[in-house]
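pipeline stage [seq->struct] | target=UDP-N-acetylenolpyruvoylglucosamine reductase | organism=Arcicella rigui | residues=338
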Amino acid sequence: MNIQENVSLKPYNTFGLEATASYFVEVSTVDELKNVLQNPAFREEEKLFLGGGSNLLLTKNYEGLVVKIALKGKEKIFEDENHVLIQAGAGEIWHQFVMFCVENHYAGIENLSLIPGTVGAAPMQNIGAYGVEIKDIFHELQALNLETLEVETFTLADCQFGYRESVFKHTLKGKYVIVSVTFRLNKVPTFKTAYGDIQKTLAEMNVTELSIKAISDAVIAIRKSKLPDPVEIGNSGSFFKNPEIPLTQYKNLIESFPTLPSYPINETTVKVPAGWLIEQAGWKGFRDGQIGVHARQALVLVNYGGGNGNEIKKLAEKVQQTVLDKFGIKLNPEVNYI
């Protein structure tokens, strides 16, 4: 292991923001991670555990130790006639893992194609897209207890998954580092095509026979058409969560905004698309210097190059205030501010 000093974090966050870590180290095994945590020189340092940097807004230099989690590997640990359990290291690139499953005909994960980030970060906020969430394919995960330095196993119930939520964002925040995740995938697929433009895109692609690859290809095409590639334009994907509001509030809103879309959560709650709210509030395509709101998807805040995290944070706050004033709905960020 090589602990470096004064390292630029620009290559390690998808916004492409310039910030410096006082100390930086990359770990590829659990033992290396333990050694870093036991190192007397860094025991008292603040620590930031970094995956793909796709859910991060760096607003300042990090005065502590950044630990890049690079634990790799994929292993089939169980199989029967209906299911397979695949364990993946936390440092595996999420989209590459999805492609591995698609290529091996392991179903259930295809709707989550092309989401940026790593396997280890995925359960932290229960990532989801096009009708599927991590909790739907999750079996268990292993995480290092930062106090005892023991690896513990967390079941589906232990993780307390919610909409872009888990126990690791709340009561266990800062207490564990996820080192591997095991997924329960299907040998016989159950296709989910009702959400978003999947059916429309499949038709445009002249798909006559459904397959997990066809759905994956459709999701990839949709995401590429709406979301900027972070390599070309700095961004973190969806910046805000889609808000969940009471059905009574939604009924009041559609009197003034009859085209407001909604997705039922239960008998009393609906989810409304944050991107629609932001667009209706006039932000889509907005640009201020080197930052802005993406022209094709208002849910995405962008860094065109040379912007800084505080500028993006202030833009996000303006967007939140405008939406609150217009609709009475508070938007909450998906990204973590550092």
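stage status: PASS
auto-comment: The chain has three domains: 4-69, 74-186, 234-337. The chain has a mean pLDDT of 93.
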